[in-house]
Amino acid sequence: MIIVNEHVAKSSAGSDEPADVKENLGVRAYKQLKNDIIKGVFRPDEKLRMSALKERYDLGIGPLREALSQLVAEHLVVAISQRGYRVAPMSLAELHDIYDARAQLEAMMLGLAIERGDDAWEADILAKTYQLSKVSEANTPRSLLEIWDARHSEFHTALVRGCHSPQLMKVRNGLFDKVQRYRHFWLKETVFSEHALDKKRQEHDALVKVTLAHRKEDAERMMREHLMTPVPIITSVMQQQGIA
């Protein structure tokens, strides 16, 4: 019995990292690489060299391959047969398709929320609207962008959460992930411009007003228009950077 236990102990000591550690490293690799792709650290069609990724993230090949496989499934990375990986391309056609799909879905969900929402839903909208109006407290450009982006996302989620449909929320989350790379271009053009932020505040206030008044058709129309406003700005940035 002692021999068996010693053998087990030696096997455990000589084994690779525990499964949960490997999983955590894979998650870390996924989050960091995805964030860098979204923020343009790696440009569209750029080859992702494993040696450079290992050095940048201080991770082994295993977690990086796991992360790359997940990002391939999310269409942020393209696997090239026998030649590694590249950042997925970007195009104006994809930009318009994703934004249109998101605007149509969000408008429908807002209409359902107006039909199904309760007092708690309305209170949450008002709370998130107030929080979004307080982003001026950020003291650096980077923190301003991060805080405004997070609170802006929470504001829009509060508006549609009243639809009470986990399945629709799941589809919405998937579309939001796909739009992130394009949306980051718009964020940098908007958050650092007081004029652009003020225009967004006006749009948000008008949207909240018609929503809480239960003016369903007006709210749906305004939501579609509101979510499509970034498209011309993103188009211009992509053309300037030679991406389109």
TrEMBL record:
The keyword Repressor does not apply. The keyword Transcription applies. Keywords: DNA-binding, Transcription, Transcription regulation. It comes from the Bacteria. GO terms for molecular function: DNA binding; DNA-binding transcription factor activity. Gene3D superfamilies: GntR ligand-binding domain-like, Winged helix-like DNA-binding domain superfamily/Winged helix DNA-binding domain. Residues 23-90 form the HTH gntR-type domain. InterPro entries: GntR_C, TF_FadR/GntR_C, Tscrpt_reg_HTH_GntR, WH-like_DNA-bd_sf, WH_DNA-bd_sf. This is DNA-binding transcriptional regulator CsiR. It comes from Vreelandella salicampi. The lineage of its organism: Bacteria, Pseudomonadati, Pseudomonadota, Gammaproteobacteria, Oceanospirillales.
